[in-house]
Design brief:
Helix 7 runs parallel beside helix 8. Helix content is 39%, strand content 23%. It contains eleven helices and twelve strands. Strand 6 and strand 7 form a beta hairpin. It starts with a strand and ends with a helix. With 367 residues, it is an alpha/beta fold. The chain has two domains: 220 residues, Isopropylmalate Dehydrogenase (3-Layer(aba) Sandwich), CATH 3.40.718; 141 residues, Isopropylmalate Dehydrogenase (3-Layer(aba) Sandwich). The structure holds nicotinamide-adenine-dinucleotide (NAD). Nicotinamide-adenine-dinucleotide binds next to helix 4. The site of nicotinamide-adenine-dinucleotide has 22 residues, from helix 4.
Length: 367
C-alpha cells in the first residue's frame, strides 16, 4: 500500500474547518511511513443543495465509489431548515449514502479521557478513570426501514400510521460478527441489547446471537440486557460494559445517550462499515464525527478538531489496516489534551486555544 485513496466530504458549518485540520494531521501521521494521501473532495449536505440542487449529488457518489473509504464532516444548518423535511441535508444525504454503500454497522467509541471527566454530566467519583466503551448499532434494518411504512385513513375517518420492525437471521449474524471482532480487540465482553420480553424481532435477535457466539466465538463473554435497563445502566455505571451491541432504533438512542455521558461532542468519533471490501480487502466505510455542524461556532476557528481526527484514525484502522498509525494519532490527541492544550468545549472555563493551535499541538506530538 503506497497511497490512501479516500473521498473527502467536509459538508457544512464546522465541517470544512475540522476537515482541513484533519488532513494536515493525517499527512503528518502517514508521511513517515512513506504513505501518500490520494483524496478527492466533493460537496455534500447544504453546500451540495446550493451548488448542485441535491444534498447527495450523483457526482459526489461517483467520487465515493472510486475511493476506498469516505471521510465525512457533518451536514445541515439554519439555512436549509425551512426546506421540506425529506430535502433537508441530514435526511437527504445521510440515509441515502448509508444505503448506497450498504453501511450496516455503526461503531461509536464512548471514550472519555480521565482528564476530561468534568465534561460528563455523571458524578466524577462514578467515573474516576473516565469512560472506555463501544456501542455497535445495526444501521440498515429494523423499524427505520421495514415495510409497510405508511400513514392511512381508516374507514371511520381516523388517521393511523404504521412502521414495521423486521430482522432476518443473516442481518443479525453479520452485525454480531462486527461486535465479536471489536470485543476481541478490547476486553472480550459483549452485551447484546434487545427487548425480548415484548418484541418478536428481539426474540429472534437473542436466539440468533446466542447460537452465533456459541458456534463462532465461544471465548467471548456474552451477556444480554433489555434496552430499558441498558439505558439506566449506562448512566449508573457505564464502565460495566465493554462492547454494547444492538439493533437500529435502540442503538440510535443508546449511542446518543453514550455521547452525552462522554461529554463534548467535539471528542466523539464514529465509523459505519459497509458490506463490501475495498481494494485492500478491508471493509469499505464512512467515518464521521458524532456531532453536527455546530452553527453556533462555525467560521470562528474555535471548533475542536479531535472528533474528526479520531474518525480519521478509525478509517486508518478499519479501512486501511494501519493500526499502528491509528494508535499514534490517538496517543497524540490524548497527550495534547493531557498537557492542557484544549479548545473551548473541553477547557472548562480555563484558557483555550483555537482549531489551528490544537491541530499544531497534535502534529507536534506525532513526533
Ligand atoms: P451539534 O452537534 O452541531 O452541536 C451541539 C453542541 O455541541 C453545540 O453547542 C456545538 O457548538 C457543540 N459542538 C459540536 N461539535 C463540536 C466541536 N467539534 N467542537 C466544539 N463544539 C462542538 O448539534 P445541533 O446544534 O443540534 O445541530 C446543528 C446542525 O447539525 C443541524 O442542522 C443538524 O441537523 C446537523 N447535524 C448533523 C449531523 C451529521 O451530519 N451527522 C449530526 C447531528 C446534527
Amino acid at each position: 500500500m503506497k497511497t490512501l485513496k479516500f473521498a473527502v466530504l467536509p459538508g457544512d458549518g464546522i465541517g470544512p474547518e475540522v476537515m482541513d485540520a484533519t488532513l494536515e494531521v493525517l499527512k503528518a501521521a502517514t508521511a513517515p511511513a512513506g504513505l501518500e494521501l490520494d483524496t478527492t473532495q466533493a460537496d455534500v449536505g447544504g453546500i451540495a443543495i446550493d451548488n448542485h440542487g441535491s444534498a447527495l449529488p450523483e457526482s459526489t457518489l461517483e467520487v465515493c465509489r472510486a475511493a476506498d473509504a469516505i471521510l465525512f464532516g457533518s451536514v445541515g444548518g439554519p439555512k436549509w431548515e425551512t426546506l421540506p423535511p425529506a430535502e433537508q441535508p441530514e435526511r437527504a444525504a445521510l440515509l441515502p449514502i448509508r444505503k448506497a454503500f450498504s453501511l450496516f454497522a455503526n461503531i461509536r467509541p464512548g471514550l472519555l479521557f480521565k482528564e476530561l471527566v468534568d465534561a460528563s454530566p455523571l458524578r466524577p467519583d462514578n467515573i474516576p478513570n473516565g469512560i472506555d466503551i463501544v456501542c455497535i448499532r445495526e444501521l440498515t434494518g429494523g423499524i427505520y426501514f421495514g415495510q409497510p411504512k405508511e400513514t392511512r385513513t381508516l374507514d371511520n375517518g381516523e388517521k393511523m400510521a404504521l412502521d414495521t420492525m423486521v430482522y432476518t437471521v443473516s442481518e443479525i449474524e453479520r452485525i454480531a460478527e462486527v461486535a465479536a471482532v471489536t470485543a476481541k480487540a478490547r476486553g472480550g465482553r459483549v452485551c447484546s441489547v434487545d427487548k425480548a420480553n415484548v418484541l418478536q424481532t428481539s426474540v429472534l435477535w437473542r436466539e440468533t446471537v446466542i447460537a452465533y457466539f456459541k458456534k463462532n466465538h465461544p471465548e467471548i463473554e456474552l451477556s444480554h440486557m433489555y434496552v430499558d435497563n441498558a439505558a439506566q445502566q449506562l448512566v449508573r455505571d457505564p464502565n460495566q460494559f465493554d462492547v454494547i451491541f444492538t439493533e437500529n432504533m435502540f442503538g440510535d438512542i443508546l449511542s446518543d445517550e453514550m455521547a452525552i455521558i462522554c461529554g463534548s461532542l467535539g471528542m466523539m468519533s464514529s465509523a459505519s462499515l459497509g458490506l463490501t471490501n475495498n481494494q485492500y480487502g478491508f471493509p469499505y466505510g464512512l467515518y464521521e464525527p458524532a456531532g453536527g455542524t455546530a452553527p453556533d461556532i462555525a467560521g470562528k476557528g474555535v471548533a475542536n478538531p479531535c472528533a474528526q481526527i479520531l474518525s480519521a484514525a478509525m478509517m486508518l484502522r478499519y479501512s486501511f489496516g494501519l493500526d499502528e498509525i491509528a494508535d499514534k494519532l490517538e496517543a497524540a490527541i490524548r497527550g495534547t489534551v493531557e498537557s492542557g492544550i484544549r479548545t473551548g468545549d473541553i477547557a472548562f472555563g480555563k484558557k483555550s486555544v483555537g482549531t489551528q493551535e490544537m491541530t499544531a499541538a497534535i502534529i507536534e506530538r506525532l513526533g
